[in-house]
Amino acid sequence: MSRKISELRKEIDRLDFELLQLLDKRMEYAVCIGKEKVLAKSNIYCPKREQEILQRLKKNALKYLNHEAIDSIYREIFAFSRKLEKVEKVAFFDSASSFAYEVVAKKFGFVGKYLMMQDLASLFRAVQLGEVKYGVIPLENDSGIIKESCELLFKNEAKVIAEVILPLQYSFASNDEKIQNIKKIYLEKAIANQCRDFLKFYGFNEDKWVFVDSSVEVAKMVAKKKHTAIICSNMIARLHNIPIIFENIQDKNNQMRFVVISDFFSQKANKNKTSLLVAIKNKKRADVLLGLLEDIKKYKIGLIKIEEKEIDFFSHFYLELEGYFEDKNLQEFLRKRSKELKLLGSYPREL
């Protein structure tokens, strides 16, 4: 080893020690804040605060750390800080090709207490009963707003407090370097439909496919079994130390939007979004739509999204508006429409 490398490593060791001391000091402050929050009976997770910290840090001109690196590092710092303040459970629905787990890791880090639910109704019930503090649910895919999520938001009192927009990227992972040795490929049906071109190109015919309900569960087995492979998210493969042979094998680039739900309203951030459901019931659809658009224009509210959904045999309009529900113009709009709408939540808009 050259003398220069040895000297550089000594500098790295010194910096590591300093970083550790600074992180430990940061955690000390987090513990103090946690105690104050418990006394004040306020919520531990504050999406607004975390978003503000990340935005502020990203304004710094750094040579090597890009925005993605800052996100990754600070998500874990946030997660461990919250754990020191108070351990709170997070539930996620194991569907959407296990991307919900990736969202949980992105928002809450790897050190939290997580529960995997088998269906959305159970997840909402757990939040409603206080069995978990937070739930992560899929809200929108390339076909639009997901009906079941919309319906459960309408029927339950849980509030949307944060959103995560996640690119749907798949990897082919296996312990076998030679793909011709692979006899079984484990994947979810939804993934097979999105990776058909890749499977066809490499000659992985359907007789090698083994459909599974959960990539999270089967990855543990693939990590130990020879001549097998799995198609899953990058995070699932890396979490179980399965070598990734091919990345981004999906036929086209899609994204999915998830939201975090809880029993409180998120604090106002710099840029906010408000989600609502407006019942049509016995009124004419066109009249309701026209009235909504006129009121949105009248109160000078920015319209992000409007989509029609059927809930309990009645049509509803799902709305996303710019702003926070306590803003003056939104308050006037909500008062006027109070008999026909439900406020689902106001939360920081993902940039």
TrEMBL record:
One matching Pfam family is: PDT
Any stretches that span the bilayer, and where are they? none
Function as written in the Swiss-Prot or TrEMBL entry = Catalyzes the Claisen rearrangement of chorismate to prephenate and the decarboxylation/dehydration of prephenate to phenylpyruvate.
According to its UniProt entry, the protein's GO biological process terms are:
chorismate metabolic process; L-phenylalanine biosynthetic process
What does the entry list under GO cellular component? cytoplasm
Which residues are in the Chorismate mutase domain?
Answer: 1-89
Q: Which residues form the Prephenate dehydratase domain?
A: 89-263
- Catalytically driven reaction(s): chorismate = prephenate; prephenate + H(+) = 3-phenylpyruvate + CO2 + H2O
Q: Give the source lineage, highest ranks first.
A: Bacteria, Pseudomonadati, Campylobacterota, Epsilonproteobacteria, Campylobacterales
**Keywords on record:** Amino-acid biosynthesis, Aromatic amino acid biosynthesis, Cytoplasm, Isomerase, Lyase, Multifunctional enzyme, Phenylalanine biosynthesis
Gene Ontology MF term list: chorismate mutase activity; prephenate dehydratase activity
Keyword flag Lyase: yes
Q: From the UniProt record, give the pathway where this protein acts.
A: Amino-acid biosynthesis; L-phenylalanine biosynthesis; phenylpyruvate from prephenate: step 1/1; Metabolic intermediate biosynthesis; prephenate biosynthesis; prephenate from chorismate: step 1/1
Q: What is this protein called?
A: Bifunctional chorismate mutase/prephenate dehydratase
Q: Kindly list the places in or outside the cell where this protein is found, as annotated in its UniProt entry.
A: Cytoplasm
